[in-house]
Design goal:
3 helices, 53% helix, four-stranded antiparallel sheet, single chain, alpha+beta
């Protein structure tokens, strides 16, 4: 991700493939995270706080991580919470 800083928030370019870009964009819109994505342009996201950064990371990870990595993460969280 590349940052374009402003005083209150940072604007990031999210580098994902074309199919994933639209899925990430749609999910960020559902989460009411300011972002933009035009045809043949990169996805840009305005990040003003840590929660927004974590939500962006989570959305991108869900679409780009290997299935087994996601399963392992869930199992690890489950084991930590219920051990």
């Amino acid at each position: 991700m590349e940052s374009r800083s402003s005083e209150a928030e940072a604007q990031y370019i999210v580098e994902v493939n074309r199919a994933e870009r639209w899925l990430v964009y749609q999910r960020l819109q559902e989460l009411e995270i300011p972002c933009s994505c035009s045809t043949n342009q990169p996805l840009t996201v305005d990040i003003g706080d840590a929660i927004t950064a974590v939500q962006l990371w989570s959305v991108v990870r869900q679409l780009t991580a290997r299935r087994q990595d996601l399963i392992d993460s869930l199992q690890s969280c489950w084991n930590k919470n219920f051990s």
